[in-house]
Amino acid sequence: MAGNDLGSLLGTLLSGAKGGSSSGGAGGLLGSLLGQLGGKGAAGGTGAAGNPLEGLLGMLDKSGLGEQARSWVGQGDNKPVTGDQIAQALPDDALQKAAQDAGVSPQEAADHLAGSLPEAVDKLTPEGEVPQGESLQDVISRQLGKLGGLGK
User: Fold this and answer.
1) What is the pLDDT of residues 73-132, one digit of tens each?
2) How would you label 97-130 residue by residue, b for 16+ Cβ within 10 Å and e otherwise?
3) Quick one: three-class SS letters along 91-147?
4) What is the Cα–Cα distance from 23 to 29, expressed in whole angstroms?
5) What is the CA radius of gyration of the chain?
């Protein structure tokens, strides 16, 4: 339920940047994953209850992908990751559930996440840092408001 709402918002945010295409599916997959991570209070216990982005970034950092993750948050170019790296970094049960929710294999889910995470994190951290004290839904809604203001 919350994952679907989050996925819809993420899909809208990602498709707003690309003008459409298959970003809605990536948003749903990412929304499902972040919804699960938020429910667990995962990775280092730093994620706020309503904002699992911190937990996800902590997981990536602990698995050796900190440089890539910091590039997505920062103001420069976004460094790529592979599906295999994402699969290694995420808890198996979270990746399995996100894949099941999206109707794809865990490897396909990891590959999709590897393609969408850099852009999604970049868009969710426009000031170059992880937003503090607000839910991920609020962050996405604020970013959508900015996109809507530019597009009209």
Assistant:
1) 988 899 999 999 999 999 999 999 999 988 999 999 999 999 999 998 998 888 888 888
2) bbbebbebebeebbbbbbbbbbbbbbbbbeeeeb
3) CHHHHHHHHHHHCCCHHHHHHHHHHHHHHHHHHHCCCCCCCCCCCHHHHHHHHHHHH
4) 10
5) 14
